[in-house]
Amino acid sequence: MSASLSPTRTQFIAGKQVSSNGTEEIPVYDPATGEIISTFQGADAADVEMAVAAARDSFDKRIWRDLPPIERAARMTAMADLIASHADDFAELEISDNGMTMSMARATVTSCANSLRYFAGTIQKIHGESTDLSGGGRQLMAYTMREAVGVVAAITPWNAPLGVLVNKMAPALAAGCSIIGKPAEQTPLSSILLSQLLAESQLFPDGVISILNGHGHIAGAALAAHDDVDKITFTGSTEVGKKLVVASAHNLKRVTLELGGKSPLFIFDDAPLEHAIQGAAMAIFANSGQVCFAGSRLYIQRGIYDAVIEGVAKIGDAMKLGNGRDPSTQLGPLVRQEQLDRVLKYIEYGISDGAELISGGMREGDKGYFVRPAVFANRERNKIRIAEEEIFGPIVTAMPFDGLDELEALANDTPYGLGSGVFTSSNSTAHKAARLIRAGNVWINCYGILDKAIPFGGFKQSGWGREFGLEGLSPFLETKAVYNML
Ligand code: NAP
Asked: What is the mean pLDDT of residues 364-371?
């Protein structure tokens, strides 16, 4: 545990950092060394009860949502400043328990502050509409109001721990909700620092923000089943997302889901080649492939197939793996031993299923969870596991294609629909492709760019709803209609 963090008071409930009621000790590993750097007691059902009661109380008493909008916006902006002023500490903790590189850790902190600032700016723009009605002989008017949905549970993954958590807090707070975060049990540290800063600053009334650190199947499941929770916002695997839909049925919680992907990236033979090769490499290797929209299916127009594979492999081979604290590190470790085992298993599947391993794919070093970025050629476009299943690691499967006529069938031959990329110098090809791909995000001559002003989310089994942009605020609001006889 970082020297400045409390090793025991790892839960944030009713405005205070408290110890868990639970007795189970959960280890936190440094992925760069494989060593246990901390342990914490996971939240249990009793902690969930307390957090939900505090959230419910703050919501029902209208303590946060009835503050003047300008005051709420100011507090959210102050939270953004608070996070930004501890950028070094947050970056260090993200590296410690997730393994990400320094540049990504710093970008995460900036992204959190930006998210809070963006949604703070929406608060004074939340409004309903008024209209005259046809009325059938009566004089009527009606108006709508947009109200906070209630108590929100935000269940988040380990691959971008602070970023995903704060991205969910920001619109929930803007809408006037009370929110309970449940970070992934692998990566609690940045959320404990956030709890500490929130406890010290008292920016928000007690119960408006709570954070429970613990196992998903215990704390997460208890939140999902709780009748006093009105909404779940979840980022994680499609498998767990489906469980949350079932768990939410009892009180018909509102549910938004940001789930997995197997995203295609197309390089046409008229693309600026060096740029496209660099884009394809970073689309899959960034954060060691532990990115929901990683471009893991690489389609290359046949005439440039070998040249692109060679180029992507060369970039992967040259990447410096290492501890994220070293600013020269380009790729950090995978998050856990389980993730390393999973990635190495998929390397074996790729070989046994008949793909050609062009480069990488081996573990690096005997400490920590490092694996060299892997490029597979699947020349026959066989329906093999590495080409179809989400791996969440630095493995790309490269397949040839013969032009725009094939794109729609290839892109959409997956249960997912999260990210996609198109590299071409033809505007016409690019925008035709953008229409044909069934995915929430299409990047043209770039990949993976996100902006708080633009909605992000998935088609098909990649999710429900959108985050970011004004569309990202809507899932935290209910619309109420008020009729008035004149
Ligand atoms: P995960 O296993 O689905 O876990 C996500 C969160 O759900 C964790 O906090 C986990 O808790 C919790 N959880 C697990 N079982 C639960 C249950 N029965 N009830 C309630 N909560 C439960 O996902 P992950 O391995 O952390 O992250 C990788 C996945 O996330 C990938 O599939 C990736 O594509 C997806 N992802 C999607 C996006 C997006 O925006 N679309 C972004 C990032 C990641 P514990 O970990 O504590 O058990």
From this structure: 96
Residue among 258, 274, 388, 467 flagged as catalytic: 258
Contact 445, 423 (CB under 8 A): yes
Pair 154, 175: CB distance under 8 Å: no
What pTM value is reported for the model? 0.97
- Is it the case that residue 3 has pLDDT exceeding 50? no
Residue 115 exposed, middle or buried by CB count within 10 Å (0-12, 13-18, 19+): buried
The tokens describing 61, both together, are: 């008493």
Cα 182 to Cα 459: distance, rounded to the nearest angstrom = 25
Residues 211 and 195 sit within 8 Å (Cβ to Cβ): yes
Give the end-to-end CA distance of the chain in Å, rounded to a whole number. Answer: 64
Closest C-alpha residue for ligand 1 atom 11 = 216
Give the start-end residues of each E strand in 22-119. 25-30, 35-41
Asked if residue 4 has pLDDT above 70, the reply is no
Cα angle 238, 182, 286; round to 5: 55
Give which of 431, 436, 440 is closest to 472, Cα–Cα: 440
Q: Measuring CA to CA, how many Å separate 435 from each of 31, 108, 276, 441? A: 40, 31, 20, 11
Of 357, 394, 347, 351, the residue nearest 377 (C-alpha): 357
Residue of 112, 177, 292, 390 with catalytic role = 292
Which residue's CA is minimally distant from atom 40 of ligand 1? 258
Supply φ then ψ for residue 344, to 5 degrees.
-65, -35
Q: Are 374 and 359 in contact (CB under 8 A)?
A: yes
Name the token pair of 383.
């329906």
